[in-house]
Amino acid sequence: MITTGFVSQNQPQRHKVFVSYHHANDQQWRDKFENLFAYHHDIMVSKSVQIGDIPENTPTDRIRQIIRNNYLRDSTVTVVLIGTETWKRKHVDWEIGSSIRHTQYNSRSGLLGILLPSYPFPNGDRTKYDPHTIPPRLYDNIQRGFAKIYKWSEDPFTVQQWIHEAFLRRNQVNPDNSYPSFAHNR
Question: Domain 15-169, what fold?
Answer without folding.
Answer: Rossmann fold (3.40.50)
